[in-house]
Design brief:
Order of helices and strands: HHEEHH
Number of helices: 4
Distance between the termini: 42 Å
Radius of gyration: 22 Å
Shape: extended
Largest sheet: 2 strands, antiparallel
Strand content: 5-15%
Helix content: 55-70%
Number of strands: 2
């Protein structure tokens, strides 16, 4: 869910992103700093899938460059947590005030 929100937040088409992510292999990092590619078992890719992925990467790069995009996820997460904390405190304060008025 968080990934979908991030994709949508930067203005990318989620359906195209989902298709792209289903087609490309998963890449993990090893402890020594290397990378391992994990292809999807049984997935046979042809020219159409290659062209789709190629075009998606180009379109996504152009979209992100167009918006001069910088996304600081840690800062956004901290801001959302702080806002949630403040709103929960305000709600608790309203509950306590209502109890005092009884």
């Amino acid at each position: 869910m968080q990934r979908a929100i991030r994709v949508l937040a930067v203005g990318l088409d989620y359906r195209r992103y989902a298709r792209f992510s289903m087609l490309v292999p998963y890449v993990s990092r090893t402890l020594d700093g290397g990378r391992r590619v994990h292809p999807h078992e049984g997935l046979v890719l042809g020219e159409a899938e290659y062209q789709f992925c190629r075009q998606y990467v180009i379109d996504a790069a152009l979209k992100l460059a167009e918006d001069d995009f910088t996304l600081d996820l840690r800062r956004l997460r901290r801001a959302a947590q702080a806002e949630q904390w403040v709103s929960s405190r305000a709600w608790e304060g309203n509950s306590l005030a209502a109890a005092d008025n009884r």
